[in-house]
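Protein record
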Amino acid sequence: MRFRRFRRFRTTGPVAVALAVLGLTTGCGAADMTKQASPFANAQGAKSVTLSVQSWVGAQANVAVAQYILEHKLGYRVDTVQVDEVPAWDALSQGRVDALLEDWGHPDQEKRYVEDKKTIRHAGDLGVTGHIGWYVPTYLVKQHPDITDWRNLNKYASLFRTAESGGKGQLMDGSPSYVTNDKALVKNLKLNYQVVFAGSEAAQITQIKQFAKDRKPFLTYWYSPQWLFKKVPMTEVKLPPYKEGCDADAAKIACAYPHTPLQKYLNADFAKSGGKAAAFLKKFRWTTQDQDEVALLIAQEKLSPEDAAKKWVDSHPDVWKKWLS
């Protein structure tokens, strides 16, 4: 789930130069970890840490606060590299980054790297539970209360037609690089809808805000925690209930997305030799409300990640001091 046009975290020193000179970025602006890595990653005995930054703003909020505390409270040099969900596992395994602070569930990667190769260590719960779903604006639900049942979606398909949906209702997704079962769900539930990708979280947010401003109907893939719910109230459409194993076969999925306790992972060598930084990241655990507070400062209030983190750190010493004990 997630996306790409928010301001990138600051990357300084040799990494910034290398990225600028070599242009080693993907089409969406994320660092290509198959070609470029931070020189500070997996540096034995060094007071430096490299954090993987996912492109959605909740993950940026995690890294902003972790980076601020590592730099200002523990005296580390911190570098950040933006990388998509699955490539992040490869980068972490190879020591190109030291830590991944928000994973939404990749059992294949866990088996490969945590269980089999043992190059990655589980670092505990983030403390936030994630959930992906289909949402419609609450103002539309007030007009059509039964629209929140997936079995009624075909009846309302004409409301959601757009120029991109080819005569069908539009189900708006963000980026095809994120966790999504939507194409299979549309097919298997026999829905008269077309999945249309906005391309990034920022692009999807822009579209949702425009729909809401014009009070137009929309059906969108979305997820929580996410600060946008505070600005555009949305109601989840009830899909067939999730049951363990109902999503085992990607082609046959016909059930809702699960509720997923978000997880942290460390490079195995860093987990052993990372000293106070590794110990801190293992203890880093906060609430959905904490994450949303920082994410809102970054995305809506337009604070830099560092300034947003400082504001949160200054007002929540009772939370983060426990991570250093």
About this structure: Residues 1-36 have pLDDT under 50 and may be disordered. The radius of gyration is 20 Å. Residues 57-72 form the longest helix (16 residues). The longest strand covers residues 120-137.
